[in-house]
Amino acid sequence: MAKNASIKYYPVGNGDSSLISLEDNTTILVDCNIRNCDDNETYDVKKDLLRSVQYTNGIPYVDVFILTHGDQDHCRGFKNHFYQGAPEKYSESDKKEGFIRVDTMWFSPMIAEEHSNEDEDAYQQEAERRLTLHRKNDPKKNNPGNRIKIIGYDGKANYKDLDHLRAKPGDIVTRFNDRDQELFSIFIHAPFKEHLEALGDDKKNSTSIVFQARFKNASYQQDFSALAMFGGDSDHTSWCIILEKTKKYKNEHALKWDLFLSPHHCSWSFFNDRPQEENPTPKKTSLEVLDYKRNNAKVIASSKKILNDDDNPPHYEAKREYVKKVTEGNFLNTTTYNVISKIPQPIVFEVTSQGIVKPKQTEGAAKVAGSAGLGIVNTPSKYGNGKV
């Protein structure tokens, strides 16, 4: 029996790293925050990735890497753990080091303008290498390890000649790593053109890639089995634009969600400006976004333990707002949800015909339980035509 698709939220402290695995073993990594594991209390994300991805000729590869934006806590470890350069030059020493090849990069032009760390620089340089191949129409441009998709609009850099590689807000992507998917698609929400203007010090966060991941269990389904929202560090201004545009173009089905990864590690910035004490009232638009939740939806906070103190994010008041919408039991913190021998474990959800189910907690890193003991998160509900 074919395995179901799954979403794995890694426990990476105040950072993001999520792995989507599809029925055909396609893997999509959303951000990475691979940290040093010397303290014996840090989950070994790299080790789990090497167990989870596919291999070709002994080379580990992820089908797609989506970097929502270039903050360190979303790309930490890219330079040291992912292969950069011409894929045909991947060596035996690279294999021994466990460098993971990225078959297809998703690249936002905003990364080119907001350099702040060496991992972001490495991602940008690798993207530019691939873009150059496409500009030169190199015969190797579409080989695994050279593929790239541009997400959103150009800032100062001009990639207009590569528009055939581009996906913009409102687009639905159904092709991943040169393969069409019938049961999985992504609706692109952001960044919009408006995100390229002003926005001050939070420009990088405001230009995060935001998308809805859509899952089916059968091609004939008129609805989606599961909907997961990813938003990087997007703030309330971004979500206000997303809400306005999505409703304007009658794409409200793209706002529905079963799993909502709280932006910016459960920061108050999703609800209003910071500091929270000076802006204590959540924006109506942010609350409306949360109201698009489906039955028994979950909010995942990829953050350190959430305390009622001044060390934020995560913001305790942000958690309170999420809990008001989904209840305490449906608010999951990656640091505290499942801890074994002092080491937080990933939160894994499996997509079934009955909706998303949460594997029973088991000992051992990233073990996925069978159907026994699984709790239904969502029963599929019909809306729109569900087309992908």
UniProtKB/TrEMBL annotation:
It comes from the Bacteria. InterPro entries: Competence_DNA_uptake, RibonucZ/Hydroxyglut_hydro. SUPFAM superfamilies: Metallo-hydrolase/oxidoreductase. This is Cobyric acid synthase CobQ.
